[in-house]
């Protein structure tokens, strides 16, 4: 029973990571850009959701705001800064997007201060439901899993079935080609970037509802999303999904199981500390193993 | 010609740092001496990273790992020396910098060997993400390991000792740090001019060509990564002693970013670039901090400006300025 | 004829459904220029990449000086004297002429792990480098950056670097690519110089150059060898005329 709950927690965590990683991997695949500020867009989404939900009283409007504000922030940043970086080396991209983090973080701190905000879930979403088998599980976490699955499906349809998807795939394959085909590359890039930003913002809005909303919340998630991408293979949406679920499961189950395992060979107190220290390293060990076996990632074409 | 001009700028930057330290001491400005010490230490961390990033083209976003390992080596050894607990194998810790430094460098060197061997299986943007992730792993480990303070960090009350010096006096500690920085500069200058340096820079610029003349890239890169980590770890140990405090924040991604900013702000692949970068960073922190609590936002905007409009960093700007001046003179 | 210096037997390489190298065998003998020709997509570059160790064949074997080298990586093959040269951008742009050649000397010697001695004051590097620079006709240009050289000078620098490897075989991958008529003529002259140093395996599109220089020619079509022989044999071969030269006309 406890295991089933942890599995669901892992799934929920994985879906949230997928929302982050999908945008990152899309932006890298199409534009060849490494975007450290992706975590800042996640934070923007969370704040937008918290503020709009608090002032209108509607959580749904908050979620819409998290998508819209993050997408708008993404499009703005793309047009002002990011598009000057496509032809630069990765070092410049890292530094510029690092600078963007500073601007976003301090800007948000200036607007909202250091104190965390809390979101209140509407009654329709809060509370627990009883799953088949008798397990009580928070309803909202199930919603997050569902949203993640819907987004995964939606992205797959978008990329395999729509005109925009064709252009995105063409962009991944050959950047000059799509220009020659008469596609407005600048517009395409802005759309893709805003799409990635919207997904990050959505993740922020959802997670902000189960955790506190505060400055600096984006970067730890960003780094996890990097781990996801390294495991899944860069540029691959499928890789992002598989990697995210792997990372989510490994982390959640590791933290639940490892201290108990350690307690069999040492006393409880030190088992807890050693166990949790080891558990916190587990996903990185997973990444190391993937690097040893398949340096290009599970679904990556090549390094 | 360019070598000469670069050499003069290097001497000027290092000389200016020494002059500020000594001048502040003579003027009785202990705080400024400490600021100069901080520049020297963070500059040293940058000199370490510059070897990998600037000369080797290895964009490591995880050098905080080595900075932190150096810092914790100092903190852990000092805490064991203070409370008498044996550390391991009957070794009881030490408060001697001459013991702490090699331990810090060896520990970081070993970590860099592991991290580097894994990370160098990738390249480009993967390498950036993987180094960042491994540093984050150590960060979380430090936070969840309560033996040495966990999230709260570890304080030690007396600065570690160096034979014949009173390390608690700002100017004497500045002397130690500036001397190590000087040594590291000479070392890095020699390495980049050596056979190894030629190989390293050729691998950065044209790896296929390097292979075609019989140079295997991975051992050269890994060696560079390890040396680079060791220098940054030395800086970490000095930084721990400067603050008499270490905490997991030394391992944070933000620290990695800052070290990288020192290097890029000063000018990638320029010997004294990291010192100029660290000096500018600390000066901005100091000056902008007075103007606004949100100085980091201003810093971010300035960084953006530099990346977008002045690639080549500070020294790049200076040399360009000198060129322009010379040209004007020649025209007249 | 003496023993071949480079001997390729039954090399195979596929990428998915595409067979890029299909059971290729080929010998290079001392003193000869052996040209490898074929239409675009015939698998010439893939073959060269397998010889230098950049990609691994699926099957088959390569012997160099009578020893199988299948397990050696690219750098080790280069140090043995299997020199690949004349590729696009095959110099280090930020290095001076002297540094470029010193790099090749250091790499060929296998001693790059020397950290503290300035390379410029190492007579083990500067001495030989000076010799190769002179041999290639670049004396006086030692301190110029490679990126500042003229096209012709860059070719000379590449020759100096190739010589510094003291190659036992030159593998030349389309040296004429992107050269004007005059450049191609100059290079043809240089190649006939180079053959005195070591035999050459030449991949080339320029048929005039191939027919002027080569002793023997191997024709590759869709990854298969369809003919090997002297220039006149190849010219007369009906299969070649039909499947390859015919396309040119």
What topology emerges from the helices and strands here?
The complex is a heterotrimer of chains A (303), B (332) and C (249).
Chain A lengths: L1 H30 L6 H19 L2 H22 L9 H23 L15 E3 L5 E3 H23 L1 H11 L1 H6 L4 H24 L9 H15 L4 H27 L4 H26 L10
Antiparallel strand pairs in A: 1-2
Chain B lengths: L1 H25 L3 H26 L8 H20 L13 H23 L4 H21 L9 E2 L14 H24 L1 H11 L1 H6 L4 H27 L1 E2 L6 H14 L6 H19 L3 H15 L3 H19 L1
Helix pairs in contact in B: 1-2, 1-6, 2-6, 2-9, 2-10, 2-11, 3-4, 3-9, 4-9, 6-7, 7-9, 10-11, 11-12
Chain C lengths: L5 E10 L2 E11 L4 E5 L6 H9 L6 E6 L2 E2 L5 H7 L1 E4 L11 H13 L13 H13 L15 H14 L4 E5 L7 H14 L5 E4 L3 H7 L2 E6 L2 E7 H6 L1 H11 L1
Parallel strand pairs in C: 3-8, 3-9, 6-7, 7-8
Antiparallel strand pairs in C: 1-2, 1-4, 4-5, 9-10
Helix pairs in contact in C: 3-4, 3-5, 4-5
GO molecular function, one term (chain C): ATP binding
InterPro entries (chain C): AAA+_ATPase, ABC_AA/LPS_Transport, ABC_transporter-like_ATP-bd, ABC_transporter-like_CS, BCA_ABC_TP_C, P-loop_NTPase
Keywords (chain C): ATP-binding, Nucleotide-binding, Transport
């Amino acid at each position: 029973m406890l295991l089933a709950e942890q599995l669901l927690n892992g799934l929920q965590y994985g879906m949230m990571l997928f929302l982050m990683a999908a945008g990152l991997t899309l932006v890298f695949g199409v534009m060849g850009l490494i975007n450290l500020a992706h975590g800042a867009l996640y934070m923007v989404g969370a704040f937008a959701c918290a503020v709009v939900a608090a002032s209108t009283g509607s959580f749904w409007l908050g979620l819409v705001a998290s998508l819209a504000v993050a997408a708008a922030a993404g499009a703005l940043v793309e047009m002002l800064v990011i598009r000057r970086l496509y032809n630069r080396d990765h070092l410049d991209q890292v530094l510029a997007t690092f600078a963007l983090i500073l601007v976003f973080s301090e800007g948000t701190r200036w607007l909202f201060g250091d104190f965390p905000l809390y979101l209140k879930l509407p009654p329709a979403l809060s509370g627990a439901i009883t799953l088949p088998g008798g397990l009580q599980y928070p309803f909202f976490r199930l919603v997050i899993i569902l949203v993640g699955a819907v987004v995964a499906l939606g992205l797959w349809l978008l990329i395999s079935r729509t005109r925009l998807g064709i252009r995105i795939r063409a962009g991944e394959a050959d950047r000059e080609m799509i220009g020659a085909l008469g596609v407005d590359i600048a517009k395409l890039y802005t759309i893709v970037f805003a799409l990635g930003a919207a997904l990050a913002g959505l993740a922020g809005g959802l997670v902000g509802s189960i955790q506190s909303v505060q400055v600096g919340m984006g970067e730890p998630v960003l780094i996890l999303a990097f781990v996801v991408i390294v495991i899944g293979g860069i540029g691959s949406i499928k890789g992002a999904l598989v990697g995210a679920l792997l990372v989510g499961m490994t982390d959640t189950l590791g933290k639940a199981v490892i201290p108990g395992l350690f307690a069999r060979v040492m006393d409880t107190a030190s088992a807890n500390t050693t166990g949790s220290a080891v558990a916190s390293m587990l996903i990185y060990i997973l990444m190391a193993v993937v690097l040893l076996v398949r340096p290009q990632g599970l679904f990556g074409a090549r390094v | 010609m360019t070598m000469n001009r670069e050499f003069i700028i290097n001497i000027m930057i290092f000389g200016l740092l020494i002059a500020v330290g000594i001048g502040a001491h003579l003027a009785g400005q202990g705080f400024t001496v400490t600021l100069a010490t901080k520049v020297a230490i963070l500059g040293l961390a940058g000199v370490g990273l510059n070897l990998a990033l600037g000369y080797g083209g290895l964009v490591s976003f995880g050098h905080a790992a080595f900075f932190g390992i150096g810092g914790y080596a100092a903190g852990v050894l000092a805490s064991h020396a203070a409370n008498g607990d044996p550390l391991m194998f009957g070794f009881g810790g030490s408060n001697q910098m001459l013991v702490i430094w090699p331990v810090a460098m060896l520990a970081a060197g070993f970590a860099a060997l592991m991290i580097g061997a894994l990370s160098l299986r990738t390249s480009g943007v993967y390498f950036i993400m993987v180094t960042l992730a491994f540093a984050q792993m150590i960060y979380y480990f430090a936070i969840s390991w309560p033996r040495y303070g966990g999230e709260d960090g570890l304080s030690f009350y007396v600065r570690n000792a160096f034979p014949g010096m009173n390390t608690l006096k700002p100017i004497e500690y500045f002397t130690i740090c500036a001397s190590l920085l000087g040594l590291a500069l000479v070392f890095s200058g020699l390495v980049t001019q050596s056979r190894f340096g030629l190989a390293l820079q050729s691998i950065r610029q044209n790896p296929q060509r390097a292979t075609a003349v019989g140079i295997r890239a991975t051992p050269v890169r890994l060696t560079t990564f390890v040396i680079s980590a060791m220098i940054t770890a030395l800086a970490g140990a000095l930084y721990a002693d400067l603050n008499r405090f270490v905490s997991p924040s030394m391992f944070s991604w933000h620290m990695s970013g800052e070290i990288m900013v020192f290097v890029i702000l000063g000018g990638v692949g320029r010997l004294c670039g990291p010192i100029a970068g660290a000096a500018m960073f600390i000066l901005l922190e100091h000056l902008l901090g007075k103007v606004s609590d949100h100085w980091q936002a201003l810093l971010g905007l300035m960084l953006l400006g530099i990346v977008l409009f002045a690639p080549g960093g500070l020294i790049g700007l200076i040399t360009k300025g000198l060129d322009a001046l010379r040209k004007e003179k020649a025209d007249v | 004829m003496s023993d071949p210096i480079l001997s390729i037997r039954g090399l195979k390489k596929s990428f998915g459904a595409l067979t890029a190298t299909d059971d290729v065998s080929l010998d290079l003998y001392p003193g000869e220029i052996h040209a490898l020709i074929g239409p675009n997509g015939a698998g010439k570059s893939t073959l060269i990449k397998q010889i230098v160790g950049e990609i691994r064949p699926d099957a088959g074997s390569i012997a160099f000086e009578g020893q199988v080298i299948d397990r050696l990586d690219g750098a080790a093959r280069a140090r043995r004297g299997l020199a690949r040269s004349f590729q696009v951008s095959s110099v280090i742009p930020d290095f001076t002429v002297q540094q470029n050649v010193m790099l090749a000397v250091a790499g060929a010697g296998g001693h790059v792990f020397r950290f503290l001695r300035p390379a410029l004051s190492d007579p083990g590097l500067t001495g030989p480098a000076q010799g190769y620079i002179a041999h290639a006709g670049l004396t006086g240009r030692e301190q110029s950056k490679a990126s500042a050289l003229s096209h012709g000078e860059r070719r000379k620098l590449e020759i100096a670097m190739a010589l510094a490897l003291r190659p036992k075989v030159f593998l030349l991958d389309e040296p004429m690519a992107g050269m004007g008529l005059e450049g191609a003529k100059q290079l043809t002259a240089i190649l006939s110089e180079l053959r005195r140093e070591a035999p050459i395996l030449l991949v080339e599109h320029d048929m005039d150059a191939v027919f002027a220089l080569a002793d023997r020619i191997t024709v590759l079509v869709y990854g298969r060898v369809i003919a090997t022989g002297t220039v006149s044999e190849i010219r007369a071969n009906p299969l070649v005329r039909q499947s390859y030269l015919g396309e040119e006309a």
